[in-house]
Amino acid sequence: MIKILLVDDEYHVISYITNLLQHIDFCEINTITTTSGPEALQIVASSHIDIAFLDINMPRVSGLQIADKLHNQWPDCQLIFLTAYEVFDYIYEANRYPGAIYLLKAESDAKILDVAVSCCHAILQKREEKSYLSDIQKKEKLLLLLQEQQFLREVVHGDLTKDMECFVKNSSLEIHFSFEKEVYLMLMHIRRSPSSICDSSFYLERMEHLLGNLFLFSFVETEKGVLLWIFQERDYPEKEVSYFNCLKDTMDSFLDICTEIKHQALSLCLYREKVAWDEVSRSYQLLYDAYYEESSLLSIHSSAARVIERNTNPSPRFPFSNTVAGPDTAMTENINIDTSPVTRLPSAALSGRLFSMKQALYQGKRDLFLTELQHCRQYCTVIKNMHHVGTIKIYFSIVLIYLEYIEHYKLVPRIAMEIAMYPLYFINDFPDWEHAFLYLRQLGEILFRIANENNSNKTRQLIASIQNYIQSHLSEDLNLTVIADYVNYNESHISRLFKRYTGYNLSEYITSCRIEYAKSLLAQTEDTVQFISQKTGFHTSQYFSSTFRKNTGLSPNEYRMQKRRPQQS
Q: Residues 471, 499, 125, 217: is their CA dihedral positive or negative?
């Protein structure tokens, strides 16, 4: 996705360029518009901008002042200056910015569109090109990462709540974070990847390119395919920067890069609040649980990002585990496991099995869940003794996973229609472990079937929420960024999801809703065309009239006369 900012104090110019940009069909375009210079500065402070069309001569805040802000905060942003006259006094100042383009507003449609297309191609090409660091720089960065990961693992485990500086000093580690400043946390889940290797160098390079001027950062792999990123603000007292919004906005660009270059499907989950270092372990667990409880909406083949709010009443969860979960493979009945000695299942293996099972249940990974359940079943059936403490512990640990899931999604009435739940609590009702695990498998299959039914309902609810928001805010500025913020998902995911389930692009749907609302106002009220254009979010009567004619074949007044003619006769 390419984010384009249009700033001009004449709304018809913004409408005109917006319409031209809709002809770009080789990449996703998210257009943000404003007629206010001060508002443009606020947008720049909170959003990563790829291309900016700037009117040079505007009241209060000029396009050159906005360009200064863009150049300092987003150095790679392509600047395109607009003016209605050949005022060459401005050209010298505009040329201060490398690669800046100077356009007259009177240029032909083809010229302006060609410039926009060329800029989009250049941005996509830059994303594909790997701006490799030198071998020495790579080694230095990876060495620093390894040292920081040793420290971060201790922090995430909860083993370091105090005396962090002493631990770093005694361990001879080089850490570039400040322990006095709070940090942001972001969970990254590699849902699908051609390679099983975590390419640390690639992720560091890309994040450095996107956010290196604003944040110190690092990450630690908490389990296979799951990374926890730590971000700490750099000190820029002279800059008015909304750090959180910049971080949130960059998630989209990072997803696009990983998708286009590494062919990965990722999920990013950003914790909204900054946290102190001694709160990192607890906040990570809240972030982790919240992500997996919502991840059922996501396809394994698609990338998405969202923001997680603080949960004041979190449900109890399993503690962080450093055990690597098994691969997501189909279940087979002939699984070879080592059953000697059979006196007990090692506690580390038990923790790993249970953690993997719980994760698979919340992620909707049926095969992995049943594979782990099969491992536990084979162990218990080898021991056979229904009064063995170790096997009882395994059984009720699995029961706890089931009950937490059932309680969280309020599934008791639904499950009761298909299977009795009381055997969960009365282990003595089973003649042996074989029958006990047969029941657990049957209940597990029911949970996954219900989850599949609920997933489509969740998506419908999300789409309905977006549609209701649009219908209720037609007079306001509506764009992909605003709507993505409202539902706390990233823009690319919302754009693809809406298109897939409705058949409309989001911008097309917004326009169609505005046109339908305008039709009803024209037919049922005496409001002027100017008033209706404002009420339906078109801002100017000229833009409203041209869009209305394009969609209906009639001008607003012609439509009003046509609708009222039968009444007069």
A: positive
Three-class secondary structure assignment of 146-199:
HHHHHHHHHHHHCCCCCCHHHHHHHCCCCCCCCCCCCEEEEEEEEEECCCCCCC
Out of 3.40.50.2300, 3.40.50.300, 3.90.1640.30, 1.20.1280.170, select the CATH number for domain 2-128: 3.40.50.2300
Please give the structure tokens belonging to residue 317: 């969860």
pLDDT tens string 240-252: 677 888 888 888 8
User: What tens digit of pLDDT does each residue of 512-543 get?
Assistant: 999 999 999 999 999 999 999 999 998 788 88
Residue 313 is predicted with a pLDDT of 42
**Phi, psi torsion values for 353, nearest 5 degrees:** -60, -50
**What was the pLDDT predicted at 160?**
66
Contact call for residues 100 and 75 (beta carbons, < 8 A): no
Res 515: pLDDT: 94
> Which one, of 224, 48, 200, lies nearest residue 127 by Cα?
48
Q: Where are the domains of the chain?
A: 2-128, 135-308, 347-454, 473-568
Spatial neighbors of 17 by CB under 8 A, at least 6 apart, are 6, 8, 53, 112
Q: What is the pLDDT of residues 218-231, one digit of tens each?
A: 898 888 788 899 99
| CATH code of the domain occupying 473-568 | 1.10.10.60
Decide if 2-128 and 473-568 have a common fold.
no
Specify the residue for token string 């739940």.
Answer: 421
Q: Is the peptide bond before 327 cis (omega within 30 degrees of 0)?
A: no
Q: What is the mean pLDDT of residues 553-562?
A: 92
Domain 135-308, what architecture?
2-Layer Sandwich (3.30)
Q: In what order do the strands lie in the sheet with 51-55?
A: 29-34, 2-7, 51-55, 78-83, 101-104
